[in-house]
Inverse folding.
């Protein structure tokens, strides 16, 4: 069901005259970013600050300008009902969750696998590191495909193939087969990670996105800990590592059910006149045509971007200085979140006789509640603080919003994460009470959560016309920085001490502040100089 949005003229704003609620104007097309809402290096979000006459559609609060401006078309995703939008958001988020759940589950089973195949625990952990790398590489593949073919079919078919690969991992008779299945699982399931930001951007207005990104991130970033948490409990009870991957297959199967039940094509070409919009047949048959990609193929030539253009745009966006710098900062920080996660089993399961903590799988399972709680607390804090700092900026700058306001949250995140890593390192080095490590890991997870939302929001605010491309590169930065940590985390700590290795990690996180400082000082100028994608 389409939603109605009030229109406004500057002379009818609150304080001048009563706000008018009118039906949609019957123009052929509506400007996505109206001239009245444009500002140098930013956008105008508060209609009370408009000068002169302007007819714009507003949010229900009567003063927030809706961007993009919705069309008259009931098939416009911006006009879909609240329930439809949030079911689609949850499905896209579950796709991202499935990718990280299955990826992060692997380290929990390395000891029974090492025993079965006669290899060391470190070698048994190698497929998990490569799995993370191919999660990043897969994003580079599926992003352009989702742009020229559509969101719905890419999410559907990669989920189906990913389910097959997850079942293959559960049935793997040898280490080599298991290795291959883990690589292919990541390659296909990563589409949910990269496309969820694009889907979010397609269906929500600008002023809604920061909070929706927070809801997306709390599940997405929690999933690498939910997987190993439950996996360790299962290993403790059954001792059978294939059971863990049958659970992963179930998570992906649920993703397919959600996709079939709720997903529709969210891409909407706003450059087309209303008369040029292709018909979207209603009913189950029409939606299934869009789900499997037949409708997209039928209308590809005149409606979807050309293949070469999407590939070119994807390649060019990383060379935009503002986006490259935020990706660099994210890479330098998130690497250590992945490193801690895929090394936890080795770090905490070492016998006490050789200086370890001697945790059983049950103990490791409970330990994973630490980052989960930290992430949830980060979402609660960021849910209100992100909007608060943005609204404060808008009020102090005559209704104008600029993306650099998002960067303040990153400073807070880094200030929390630096002592967190030091605390974890000191706790491991001196075998302090595990409460010290729990506190440090929880603090770091809090910072990762709040920084992830800020980084994603900044990127999307800066380049709103390339959401899938942004998601692909952010996923690549996140995974490329962390995939190799599993290879050297334990040997590094053994060589220089956990305090030395984690202290170095804390220093690198501090260095990640430099790109953010450059953006804060020159981001406005860089965006204007190098333009849109």
């Amino acid at each position: 069901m389409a939603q109605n949005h009030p229109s406004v003229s500057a002379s009818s704003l609150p304080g001048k005259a009563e706000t008018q609620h009118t039906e949609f104007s019957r123009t052929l097309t509506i400007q996505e970013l109206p001239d009245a809402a444009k500002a140098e290096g930013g956008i105008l979000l508060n209609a009370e600050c408009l000068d002169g006459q302007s007819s714009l559609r507003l949010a229900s609060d009567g003063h927030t300008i809706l961007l993009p401006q919705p069309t008259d078309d009931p098939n416009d995703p911006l006009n879909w009902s609240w329930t439809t939008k949030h079911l689609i958001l949850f499905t896209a988020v579950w796709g991202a969750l499935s990718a990280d759940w299955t990826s992060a589950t692997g380290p929990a089973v390395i000891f029974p696998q090492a025993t079965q195949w006669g290899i060391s625990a470190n070698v048994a952990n190698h497929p998990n590191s490569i799995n993370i790398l191919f999660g990043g590489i897969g994003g580079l593949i599926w992003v352009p495909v989702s742009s020229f073919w559509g969101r719905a079919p890419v999410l559907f078919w990669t989920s189906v193939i990913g389910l097959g690969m997850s079942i293959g991992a559960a049935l793997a008779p040898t280490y080599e087969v298991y290795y291959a299945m883990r690589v292919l699982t990541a390659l296909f399931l990563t589409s949910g990670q990269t496309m969820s930001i694009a889907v979010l951007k397609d269906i929500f207005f600008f002023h809604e996105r920061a909070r929706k990104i927070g809801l997306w991130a709390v599940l997405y970033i929690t999933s690498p800990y939910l997987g190993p948490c439950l996996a360790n409990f299962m290993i403790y009870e059954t001792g059978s590592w294939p059971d863990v991957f049958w659970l992963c297959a179930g998570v992906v199967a649920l993703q397919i059910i959600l996709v079939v039940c709720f997903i529709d094509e969210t891409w909407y070409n706003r450059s087309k006149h209303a008369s040029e919009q292709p018909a979207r047949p209603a009913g189950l048959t029409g939606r299934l045509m869009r789900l499997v990609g037949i409708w997209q193929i039928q209308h590809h030539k005149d409606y979807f971007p050309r293949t070469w253009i999407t590939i070119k745009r994807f390649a060019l966006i990383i060379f935009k200085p503002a986006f490259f710098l935020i990706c660099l900062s994210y890479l330098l920080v998130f690497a250590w979140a992945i490193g801690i996660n895929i090394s936890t089993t080795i770090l905490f399961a070492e016998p006490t006789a050789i200086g370890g903590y001697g945790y059983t799988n049950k103990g490791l399972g409970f330990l994973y509640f630490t980052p989960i709680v930290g992430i949830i607390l980060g979402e609660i804090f960021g849910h209100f603080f992100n909007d608060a700092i943005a609204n404060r900026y808008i009020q102090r700058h005559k209704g104008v919003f600029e993306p650099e306001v998002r960067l303040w949250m990153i400073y807070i995140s880094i200030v929390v994460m630096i002592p967190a890593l030091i605390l974890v390192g000191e706790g491991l080095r001196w075998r302090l009470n595990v409460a010290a490590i729990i506190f440090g890991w929880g603090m770091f997870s809090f910072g990762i959560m709040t920084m992830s939302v800020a980084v994603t929001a900044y990127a999307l605010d800066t380049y709103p016309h390339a959401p899938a491309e942004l998601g692909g590169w952010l996923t690549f930065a996140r995974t490329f920085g962390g995939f190799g940590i599993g290879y050297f985390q334990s040997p590094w700590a053994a060589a220089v001490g956990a305090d030395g290795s984690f202290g170095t990690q804390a220093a690198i996180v501090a260095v990640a502040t430099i790109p953010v400082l450059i953006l804060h000082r020159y981001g406005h100028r860089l965006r204007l100089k190098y333009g849109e994608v």
The longest helix spans residues 209-238. Residues 8-29 have pLDDT under 50 and may be disordered. The first strand starts at residue 7 and ends at 8. The CA atoms of residues 38 and 44 lie 6 Å apart.
